[in-house]
Amino acid sequence: MKRPIPLIVGALSGLIVLAAMFIVPQGGGILAIVLNWVIIVAGAALLVAIASLVLTHVRFIAKGKKGFLLSLVLVISFITTLALGLLLGVDRPSFLKFVGAIIRPIETALLGLVALVMMSAAMKIFRERGWSSLTVSFGVSAIIFLILGLGFPQNLNIPVLNEVIRFVEGLPMIGARGLLIGIGIGLLLMAFRVLFGMEGFGND
Amino acid sequence: MLSALTLNDQLALALGIAGLLFLLINLLVLKRNQPKHTPEPAKEAVENLLHVSSEQGKRLVVGLGQALTNASFDLAGASGLNLQRALLKRSLFNDQPLQSYSGDGVLACLSRMVVHGAYRGALASELFSGSLSQLSGTSPLAYTASLVNQIPDSSNAGLLLAGQMSPVILLVLDQADRHLLPAISAISSLSGQAAGFFGNSVNLIGEDVFNAAGKLDQRKSALASLSAQDWLRIAISIGLLLGAILTMGGALP
């Protein structure tokens, strides 16, 4: 059963913040306070989630669950980073250099992998999804925008062609706006359901 | 005060009020036990995944995204929670419970509340385990790397990506494809939806991202919200047409 007091408090807080966004400039002060609260609560939630993650992996190690070596790596890395952060201070250049030297190459490698996977996925799309209107449109638009991106047609300086290019370049924005309107409508209704306690994360 | 609002703000306010009105009207009009059934590819795809999961005794993996409070507050990041709850209700007593991963602290806590609420609602709190909903990285890349690592598990029946994600998620979809794992992406960011299109998955775009949960859930509020969504879409289309006509007539700048 849903508890009424948290629901009323939640709904009232949401309505006050919403009203503060439209009542300018008086609402600015309220928004700043609420933003600080959100940061504190989000920080606390992150700590809870991290503690829970570490505990879960400690349990995996204790039970010798399949893949527990990865859990061991996670726990050791976490403890090492935490200990170094506490001992040296999180702003110390040597600590930042140490953490950065591990994270940056891994992230760069992953991004490189994304580029390769994206290229391979673009090739595979015709095999997996077949020759449908969607895939053909994708292929044609990819070629057109690749040519436009090279800048050769623009350099010809033909006024009519430039007009056509400007029109074509605006097309993705039109499509994106259509999708964004759809997402916006869905979000708006979801926000109302959350605001008035109809979602009830965990309450039902 | 309100007069200081720009035209865009005034339009947003009007749309918000219209949305609220439509939702209330639909809540009052909609009959609880007579939901209209419309065939929905997204719903069918998710139901197929559930079916495979319960038939094979394997688990479904749900990726809830990594952006609710990480960079800025973005409610779209919580869009996967509805789907998680709808799926949980149908798979609570499967051999392998639903496993979800979040890339944001607040999202991980909310997701755990959803899982706990679902088990408590089914009077089976003793079956709840914290490991069913985990934090798996606090940046898009860490989250993706962690999720990629979960895909090859032989106990997986399917993958569902629902929430706010970056295009890097393509790595996860590619991994799922390599392990012949059926995947559905209901990502609420445009770049994420593009990645979902590239990956070999059932890709939901636009408002469909929010429809799947509502259609599965069949709760009165969810169905009323879907109808209100349709009404709002019609209202916006009429508004855009009127705006275009007025602009061409010189009545609007």
Please outline the helices and strands.
The complex is a heterodimer of chains A (204) and B (253).
Chain A lengths: L3 H19 L4 H37 L4 H21 L4 H37 L3 H18 L1 H4 L3 H37 L9
Helix pairs in contact in A: 1-2, 2-3
Chain B lengths: L6 H23 L11 H16 L2 E7 L13 H13 L7 E4 L2 H17 L11 E3 L4 H11 L5 E9 L5 H9 L4 E5 L2 H9 L3 E2 L4 H10 L2 H29 L5
Helix pairs in contact in B: 1-9, 2-8, 3-4, 3-8, 5-6, 8-9
Structure notes:
The complex is a heterodimer of chains A (204) and B (253). Chain A has 204 residues and is mostly helical. Chain A has a domain at 131-195. Chain A has seven helices and no strands. In chain A, helix 2 (27-63) crosses helix 3. Chain A is extended. Chain B is α/β, with parallel strands linked by helices and 253 residues long. Chain B has a domain at 43-217: Rossmann fold (3-Layer(aba) Sandwich). Chain B contains nine helices and six strands; from the N terminus they run H-H-E-H-E-H-E-H-E-H-E-H-E-H-H. The longest helix of chain B has 29 residues, at 220-248. The chains are: A mainly alpha (204), B alpha/beta (253).
Which properties best describe this structure?
heterodimer; A: 204 residues; mainly alpha; 7 helices; 0% strand; extended; B: 253 residues; alpha/beta; Rossmann fold; six-stranded parallel β-sheet; 9 helices; 54% helix; globular
In short:
Chain A has 204 residues and is an all-alpha fold.
**Beta-strand residue percentage of chain A:** under 5%
SSE pattern of chain B, N- to C-terminal: HHEHEHEHEHEHEHH
Q: What structural class results from the helix and strand content of chain B?
A: alpha/beta
SSE class of chain A: mainly alpha
What is the multimeric organization of the chains shown? heterodimer
Portion in helices of chain A: over 70%
Q: Count of helical segments of chain A?
A: 7
Give me the strand/helix succession of chain A. HHHHHHH
Radius of gyration of chain A: 26 Å
The low-confidence runs of chain A, each spanning 5 or more residues with pLDDT under 50, are none
Q: Please tell me the overall pLDDT of chain A.
A: 85
